[in-house]
Amino acid sequence: MHSSLSQKHNQKSILSDDNLRKKLEFNRKQSEKQDQTELIEKCTQEFKYENCSHQYWNPIEFSLLHGTYLWEQASEKQKILLNQIYWIAYYSQIISAEVATIFFNQVAGAGLFAMEDFKILCDALDLESRQERCHINAFKTISEEAEWELFGERIFSYPMRGVFEHPTVIHWSNNQLKAQIRNLKLYGYVICASNSPFLASQYLTIRGIRTLNGKLVQHKLSKYYSGAANKETISIPSAISYHHFIDESFHFNTSKTIGLELLDYLPKPNTFDKWIVNKLISGCQEDHNSFSVAINGIFWHDPALFKQIHKILKSKFFGFDSKDIKYIMEKCFTEESDGMHGSYATYKTARESYIMFLDNLDFVEANNRKMHIMSKTSVEATLKTNKQALKKFFKNNEI
Q1: For residues 76 and 81, what is the distance between their CA atoms, to the nearest angstrom?
Q2: I need a labelling partner for 265 at 20 to 30 A (CA). Which of 12, 139, 247, 330 fits?
Q3: Measured between alpha carbons, how far is residue 257 from residues 23, 79, 201, 251, 365 in Å?
């Protein structure tokens, strides 16, 4: 039946490929069957910071500034705090990524409408978007409540914002012209992708790259809950990390299937299409061309975090004076440490996994295929950047 339909419309049908069809159907059905929305919403409603203020929320190595001078000098209570702050910082970043996912899922869906068999693809994206809204609410609710209880102000959380309002990663230099140029590029992509099945499908390739490192890190975060002997004693944020990872595992499968395996059923890309996709991949490299000693697993520029780190060190939980803060920040950000090398190892693993992910796409240029932009990042270059930025930070803040 599917073959006759595809011949009638002169278009190759994805439903005629039993393996691809079964893969798409299986992933969607399993995602629906294991949908974690109700569990996450229940956890969010039950969360009270005071009930888990004494607990680690992640594996210990996923703590703010783990393996640095600050971590080595911290008391057990301070280490628990640093562990919780990591959760807040990490998932506050994920909010931005998931807001973008909801928006661009709709853009991709519009582009895929041009296919005869669009429904099976768009249904998967619609389910994801509903789940992402639940994730965002959970991360935002917990992060805001925890920061208010701890500091009485925002540190890493922020008010909701649109996908074009700010970059989805924290950058050291807040260059307004670059931000406007970035948005113009995104506007252009939205117009092109909403009218092109190929460009629409390649959003899922880009999404796969951008979320691959997250998948690797979040698997480790989820184990803190899944590996516990008594899950009832584990904190609610830890449980949410686990439930979120389950949902995201199916989302990543969707990225791979639509982005990489659907290409035989799409019109061949022209030179302009290839150029756009390679520009998007280069943009991923530029966004991911640094690693953070403060937050292992996120591609943030540490200089963008100096203000937040200063607030934390000055808070009642540490109570350091300006002289001590300057010394500690210099030790953490301008000297090699186990924490810095651990973050760099995560970074290198991410780069290697990106290369493998793109291996079979013949339209990807060599610069992107080998992740040349990301290859320039090193411990030495990061130390040099941090030293210059920290000196400027101290001078501007008269510390």
Answers
A1: 9
A2: 247
A3: 8, 41, 9, 10, 21
Tokens 């607990």 identify what position? 55
Q: Is residue 229 part of a domain?
A: yes
Phi and psi at 299, nearest 5°, equal -90, 60
Residue predicted with more confidence, 185 or 362: 362
**Residue 12 counted as domain residue:** no
Count the Cβ atoms, other than its own, within 10 Å of residue 283. 17
User: Residue 181 has which token pair?
Assistant: 């140029």
The tokens describing 386, both together, are 């941090």
> HEC string of 274-319?
HHHHHHHHHHHHHHCCCCCCCCCCCCCCHHHHHHHHHHHHHCCCCC
pLDDT tens sequence across 322-334: 999 999 999 999 9
SS3 letters across 243-259: HHHHHHHHHHHHHHHHH
Residues 6+ apart with CB under 8 A from 368: 278, 281, 282, 285, 358
Taking a C-beta distance cutoff of 8 angstroms, is the pair 215, 287 a contact?
A: no
Domain that holds residue 358: 28-396
Let me know: does 131 contact 244? Beta carbons within 8 Å.
Answer: no
* Spatial separation of the C-alpha atoms in residues 344 and 338, rounded to whole Å: 10
DSSP string, 114-156: TSTTHHHHHHHHHHHHHHHHHHHHHHHHHHHHHHHHHHSS-SS
Torsion angle (degrees, nearest 10) of CA 170, 173, 176, 179: -40
Rounded percentage of the chain residues whose pLDDT exceeds 70: 94
What's the CA gap between 298 and 24, in Å, rounded? 30
Both tokens of 9, joined, read 């419309």
* Lowest pLDDT segment from 183-187, 349-353, 383-387: 183-187
Residue length of the chain: 399
Number of domains composing the chain: 1
For residue 8, being part of any structural domain is answered with: no
- The verdict on residue 13 lying in a domain is no
Confidence of residue 65 (pLDDT cuts 50, 70, 90): very high
Q: In whole angstroms, what is the distance from residue 392 CA to residue 351 CA?
A: 30
The distance of Cα 235 from the centroid of its chain, to the nearest Å, equals 22
